[in-house]
């Protein structure tokens, strides 16, 4: 076969892509085979993360610590990297600084504070100071409140609807320090905006979205947890083996 | 003050280097003419200037977020940010709106390229031949004016163009969607094959085919077959999709007779009253604002539908006080676009052991099946018709944001692809109506001193009636195919943004072809009735809109006119 200049450049293009996939194109097949027993579905909480040294531009140190804990709860480190390994806290800070405009940024920061308010009301401690089990219990409540039907939420709910004027208490917020009895509320410094955000469910859905985007479009998320769709060929119908194969990133 | 060039530097000037301008330059240079392209945007060199091609998503600061009007980065692009195509990885191929302001009397989204290659770098690449159903439509319906050509006039030029650019697709033998010179079709995925089987079995007369695209599935004319990286609109250094850079400009350059001058904003055409000829163009340098003139014996205006119309309107003389070649008065009227953003989606049960590999930059197409000229397909609530574009896929990790759960369970779930679903969206014909009009607003000028366009365009009763049927027929087909949880949608918002004219980026019709100089601007060869050395072969020449994507018709008309 003759090599036209274009064909050479195509080959070069494919090789360039192979580089960022971490080897030749065939490597993804190898990785696929190796992956067969590589996924253990247990959380592996860590104390050190590869990207711990940067300085946030919008988040305070305290907000960063809280956000880091939250995103790691959403996508924890298992046998593959988790959200913190993948730099999701930094991605969040980048979005808050360079992407969202003031109203949305403000809602996200209020939502973060709302998580601490929940922890204070329930445990008289800020979220990061509570135990792992307490944290998961709080987030389980938040998740249940954010998806009231218990299933897929309507498209409209995903849009940026203004928060309700009268915060409604979600079904899962009972128990000690419940929002239904905000007796201690005023000592935790919750503004109206924070209270509104606690009740709306918007913050938790948005944080999950940000975490998923940040994680699965990161190099670790896209290449170690999932796999990058290799270039070079289109096959419309290939077999998929659950448990062995992975989704394309 | 304009600086003059020598009168005999060029035989022809082509204004614009996009899809049709590139074709004009190729044809004219290959016929021996010395051609000058003046392009308002910056230069974009094939390969070198595709700065985001194959860049992994994690190397973009914001991971290639879409830039909509709600977020930072859209400040200078308030209009371009309305299209879903506009994002971190390709914003450098879109017009900075602050450089070309315009007035919307009613919502109209004007999406523009601003570089050598124009929108050919970022277009949708879907190419479908028109048929006599389209060319005869105005005459049969008794609206607007008749096309001065029929399918037989243009068919050989479709073949000529297809052989050069390379089009992949499947032959169907349908009169309303004539077959072309196709490279092998791309394969459908398992979900699409499932839907195709169901629709074709249960609703006779309906067809589901793979999209016909100007993307190579085989090596072709020295260009390489597609490598399925996915986002064509970042530019393709292997030239696997048609753009001016990959296809027409190299052919024109090969003759040694092409000159391209970027950053040259055309202010107006120079009209010689005594000779009744255009003698050249006045341009303003986009960077220095210096004014220059270029002269030639022939001028082709290919500045995009609205760009071309604006130049002609701004070229005023004693004989043409309302715009060059506008003795008819129809210049600027009959603005059309395809209306879309209406359709249906549904879940496909099963097929969990089927997947796909590669990023196919193409979907499926459902050809028009309404008002085909027989009683069986005739509608009483509207005239003309529509087709659908769409596709099936398995849900990706993004589904995790709209369902409850977090932690290991969620991570494990998203490790596998989700359920299959299928979506189809109508692409529908729009009627030419005189009241959909663009004019110059002399009270407001852009930074080059050119009066801005004022656009007044709305969908009419025929389009709105058709949209109801588009949604209903989409749902009917998906249900017939066996999809579950079928839902319809229509993003049209009567007073706002959603499915407004312009969003289809198929604007056309404001300098239409026709048989009569009293009611049209151009004749059957895209030559101005009024000024014999003036040609217009971009979308502004269109007399009706059909329902299929128009670009290949612009290419064929251009080749035919040269």
What's the shape of chain B? globular
Low-confidence stretches of chain B: none
- Provide the spatial order of strands within the biggest beta sheet of chain B: 6-14-15-16-12-19
| Overall pLDDT score of chain A | 77
Largest interface, C-beta within 8 A: A-B, 73 and 65 residues
Total beta-strand segments of chain B: 20
Could you explain how this protein is built, in words?
The complex is a heterodimer of chains A (249) and B (562). Chain A is built from ten helices and one strand, in the order H-H-H-H-H-H-H-H-H-H-E. By secondary structure, chain A is mainly α. In chain A, helix 4 crosses helix 9 (202-216). The two termini of chain A are 34 Å apart. Chain B is built from ten helices and 20 strands. Chain B has helices spanning 19-30, 132-135, 137-141, 151-165, 190-202, 244-254, 305-313, 408-415, 461-480, 551-561, and strands spanning 12-15, 35-38, 103-104, 167-168, 182-183, 209-210, 258-261, 264-272, 277-285, 291-295, 298-301, 342-348, 354-357, 364-366, 386-394, 420-428, 437-445, 451-456, 484-490, 534-536. In chain B, the strands form five sheets. Chain B has a six-stranded antiparallel beta sheet, covered by helices on one side. Chain B has a five-stranded parallel beta sheet with strand order 7-2-1-11-20, covered by helices on one side. In chain B, a hairpin with a 5-residue loop joins strand 17 and strand 18 (451-456). Chain B is globular, with a radius of gyration of 23 Å. The two termini of chain B are 33 Å apart. The model of chain B has no long low-confidence stretch (mean pLDDT 97). Classes of the chains: A mainly alpha (249), B alpha/beta (562). Chains A and B meet through helix 1, helix 4, helix 6, helix 9 and helix 10 of A and helix 5, strand 13 and helix 8 of B. Strand 1 (235-239) of chain A pairs antiparallel with strand 13 (354-357) of chain B.
């Amino acid at each position: 076969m003759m090599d036209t200049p274009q064909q050479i450049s195509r080959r070069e293009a494919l090789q360039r892509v192979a580089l960022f996939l971490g080897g030749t194109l065939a490597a993804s097949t190898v990785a696929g085979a190796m992956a067969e027993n590589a996924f253990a579905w247990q959380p592996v909480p860590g104390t050190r993360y590869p990207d711990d040294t940067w300085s946030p531009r919008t988040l305070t140190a305290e907000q960063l610590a809280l956000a880091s804990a939250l995103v790691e709860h959403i996508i924890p480190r298992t046998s593959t990297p988790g959200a913190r390994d993948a730099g999701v806290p930094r991605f969040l800070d980048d979005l808050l600084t360079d992407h969202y405009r003031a109203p949305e940024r403000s809602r996200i920061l209020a939502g973060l504070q709302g998580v601490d308010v929940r922890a204070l009301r329930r445990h008289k401690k800020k979220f990061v100071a509570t135990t792992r089990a307490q944290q998961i219990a709080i987030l389980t409540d938040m998740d249940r409140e954010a998806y009231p039907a218990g299933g897929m939420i309507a498209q409209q709910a995903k849009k940026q609807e203004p928060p309700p004027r009268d915060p409604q208490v979600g079904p899962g917020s009972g128990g000690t320090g419940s929002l239904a009895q905000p007796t201690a509320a005023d000592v935790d410094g919750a503004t109206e905006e924070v209270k509104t955000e606690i009740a709306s469910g918007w913050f938790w859905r948005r944080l999950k979205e940000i975490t998923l985007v940040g994680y699965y479009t990161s190099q670790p998320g896209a290449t170690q947890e999932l796999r990058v769709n290799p270039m070079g060929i289109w096959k419309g119908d290939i077999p998929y083996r659950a448990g062995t194969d992975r989704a394309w990133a | 003050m304009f600086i003059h060039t020598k009168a005999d530097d060029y035989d022809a000037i082509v204004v614009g280097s996009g899809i049709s301008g590139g074709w004009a330059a190729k044809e004219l240079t290959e016929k021996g003419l010395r051609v000058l392209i003046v392009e308002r945007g910056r230069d974009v060199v094939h390969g070198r200037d595709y700065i985001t091609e194959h860049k992994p998503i994690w190397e973009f600061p914001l991971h290639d977020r879409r830039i909509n009007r709600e977020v930072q980065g859209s400040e200078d692009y308030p209009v371009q940010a309305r299209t879903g195509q506009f994002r971190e990885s390709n914003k450098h191929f879109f017009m900075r709106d602050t450089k070309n302001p315009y007035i919307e009397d009613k919502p109209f989204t004007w999406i523009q390229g601003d570089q050598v290659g124009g929108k050919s770098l970022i277009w949708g690449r879907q190419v479908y031949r028109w048929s006599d159903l389209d060319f005869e439509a105005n005459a049969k319906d008794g609206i607007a004016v008749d096309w001065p050509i029929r399918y037989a006039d243009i068919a050989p030029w479709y073949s000529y163009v297809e052989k050069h650019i390379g089009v992949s697709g499947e032959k169907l033998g349908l009169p309303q969607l004539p077959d072309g010179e196709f490279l092998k079709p791309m394969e459908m995925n398992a979900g699409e094959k499932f839907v195709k089987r169901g629709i074709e079995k249960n609703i006779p007369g309906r067809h589901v085919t793979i999209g016909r695209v100007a993307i190579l599935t085989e090596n072709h004319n020295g260009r390489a077959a597609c490598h399925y990286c996915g986002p064509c609109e970042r530019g393709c250094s292997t030239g696997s999709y048609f753009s001016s850079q990959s296809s027409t400009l190299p052919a024109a350059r090969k003759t040694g007779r092409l000159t391209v001058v970027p950053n040259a904003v055309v202010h107006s055409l120079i009209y010689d009253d005594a000779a009744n000829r255009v003698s050249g163009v006045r341009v303003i340098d986009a960077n220095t604002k210096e004014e220059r003139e270029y002269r030639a014996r022939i001028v082709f205006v290919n500045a995009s539908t609205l760009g071309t119309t604006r130049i002609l309107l701004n070229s005023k003389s004693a004989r043409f006080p309302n715009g060059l070649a506008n003795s008819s008065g129809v210049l600027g009227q009959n603005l059309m676009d395809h209306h879309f953003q209406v359709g249906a989606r549904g879940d496909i049960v099963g097929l969990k052991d089927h997947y796909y590999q590669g990023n196919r930059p193409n979907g499926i197409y459902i050809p028009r099946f309404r008002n085909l000229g027989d009683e069986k397909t005739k509608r009483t609530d509207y005239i003309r018709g529509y087709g659908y574009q769409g596709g099936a896929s398995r849900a990706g990790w993004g589904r995790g944001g709209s369902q409850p759960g977090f932690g290991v369970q969620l991570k494990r779930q998203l490790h596998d692809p989700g359920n299959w679903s299928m979506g189809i969206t109508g692409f529908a014909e729009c009627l030419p109506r005189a009241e959909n009009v663009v004019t110059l607003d002399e009270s407001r000028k852009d930074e080059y001193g050119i009066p801005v366009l004022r656009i007044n365009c709305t969908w009419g009763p025929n389009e709105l009636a058709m949209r109801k049927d588009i949604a209903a027929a989409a749902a009917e087909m998906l249900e017939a195919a066996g999809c579950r949880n079928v839902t319809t949608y229509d993003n049209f918002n009567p007073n706002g943004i959603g499915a407004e004219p312009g969003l289809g980026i198929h604007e056309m019709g404001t300098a239409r072809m026709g048989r009569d100089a009293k009611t049209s601007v151009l004749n059957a060869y895209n030559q101005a009735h009024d000024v014999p050395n003036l040609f217009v072969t971009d979308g502004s020449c269109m007399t009706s809109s059909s329902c299929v994507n128009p670009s290949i018709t612009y290419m064929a008309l251009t080749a035919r006119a040269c």
